[in-house]
Amino acid sequence: MHKTNYSWYILFPNHHQGLRLSRELKKQGLKNTIVPTPRAASSCCGMSLMVDSAELEIIREIIAEQGIVIEKIVKLPVKEGWQYRGI
Amino acid sequence: MADYRQMWSDLGMDLDKHDLLCEALPDAFQGVYLSQENRPQGMDFFNFVVSEIHGVRPAELIEHQKAGGKVFGTFCVYVPDEVIFAAGGIATGLCGGSQFWVSGGEKVLPANTCPLIKASVGARLDKTCPFFRIADMYVGETTCDGKKKAWEILSAEVPVHVIDVPQMKREKDIEAFQGEILDFIKIVEDFTGNKITPEALAKSIKLINNKRKALQRLYAARKAAPVPISGKDALLVTQIAFYDDPARCAEMTNILCNELEQRIQAKEGVFPADALRILVTGTPLAIPNWKLHHIVETAGAAVVVEESCTGTRYFEQLVDESGSTIEEQVGALAERYMKTNCACFTPNPGRIDDIIRLADEYKVDGVIDVSLQFCNLYSTESYLVKQALASRDIPIMHIETDYSEQDYEQLRTRVEAFLEMLRK
């Protein structure tokens, strides 16, 4: 049976909050990547953080400890077999 | 999520049309960039810039304007940004690398105009690029006929100053370019209301040189095998350098380089040490034109250097910083800019010398000479490039393409065949 893989994205009300969390996670050795927010997660343009699902709990704790404001955490299926498409 | 719609609306942008662009970006960036393995962490800043490409920097430029500053939109590596920054202005690149804008340009330009010009004009006329909406003045140049006419069309929208780039490199041409820079100083002074002093110009020469030095360092890292950064990522850094604040760009590029140099020491790369190494030469690859690099690198070869305006031509030469008068500084600027080897010059042996030198320095296995469709200058010069490289047994293939996906599979087949030939 085909198993769907998922990516996890953290969305923010503004990029300042996103950059704060990215810095904090890096400081603590937690993997995260700044990415353009997928349309399936929000209709607004801007950055979000792609994080490892296994580290979500600790990331939630850091968010609470540091008082970082997030908008939401979104789980999206990884698209397989992407074909080149220019912008 | 940051909502820039109010800002874009205030800029008079077509929000519905622009939204189509916003919609396409995340998928394309995911497919081209985030699909790569083991990217340097230092690329995160550049991911950030792309994620907020029509938000953060435009907002900074608007703040600059609110404080009384001017923004100059530029299109070419022959425009001396130093002059603009010395007058307290900001120079920024303008949109022009996407198929999305081409149809807007075709409404007013002949279809057989290069996609860079069509996209630039389309981005302005379709109101889908914040940089085009923000810039108080566009600074054009005379590096091709298509652009020369495009300035006339754009000047109906925004003030345009055109710098007359000589077409030959005799002593009198370099002197003529000094005169162009002096004229440009006067234009910028009048437009900003700020006098350009030797002190201010010295400071901005250092500022732009520092950005060039950071990019030189990035490219030097690409000489290593295994190569510590993909060609796609290096291209993105150069593309962003046209838009970002120069000091911040230098700082973030240097941070990335620290990581790349550690990777080199650890012999860590993003391709195997024996992967084919490709030099791309030709016309500029403006953001978000990542097509050729994606084809080459998903076929297993690494692009290790670009001899182009979005590559070495942008940063290889530094401006002499020793001048203490405007005359001396303008002389140094003219000397530096006239060392850039564009196909608009006749003859242009310097570019061929550069390609051969870079092929050796970066230990490349082959060269891909890419011309944007209808770029008469680069397409014609490809004959001379091919002859020169063939005489030195450097394998080369010529590609003519545009921004669309229509020729993607055809190009992929051709590139794969070329790489296969190099492997034999």
List keywords for this structure.
heterodimer; A: 87 residues; alpha+beta; Alpha-Beta Plaits; four-stranded antiparallel β-sheet; globular; B: 424 residues; alpha/beta; four-stranded parallel β-sheet; 19 helices
Give your account of this protein's structure:
The complex is a heterodimer of chains A (87) and B (424). Chain A has helices at 15-27, 56-66, and strands at 6-11, 32-36, 47-51, 72-77. By secondary structure, chain A is α+β, with helices and mostly antiparallel strands. Chain A has a 4-stranded antiparallel sheet with strand order 2-3-1-4, covered by helices on one side. In chain A, 31% of the residues are buried. In chain B, α11 (198-221) packs antiparallel against α12. Chain B has one domain (5-423). Chain B has 19 helices and 8 strands. The chains are: A alpha+beta (87), B alpha/beta (424). Chains A and B meet through α1, β2 and β3 of A and α2, α3 and α14 of B.
Report the CATH architecture of chain A.
2-Layer Sandwich
Rounded to the nearest angstrom, the distance between the terminal CA atoms of chain B is 51 Å
How many domains make up the 3D coordinates of chain A? 1
Tell me the major beta sheet of chain A. 4 strands, antiparallel
Range of helix content of chain A: 25-40%
What is the mean pLDDT of chain B?
A: 97
| C-alpha termini separation of chain A | 34 Å
Strand order of the largest sheet of chain A: 2-3-1-4
> What is the percentage of strand-forming residues of chain A?
25-35%
Radius of gyration of chain A over alpha carbons? 14 Å
CATH class of chain A: Alpha Beta
Number of helices of chain A: 2
Shape estimate of chain A: globular
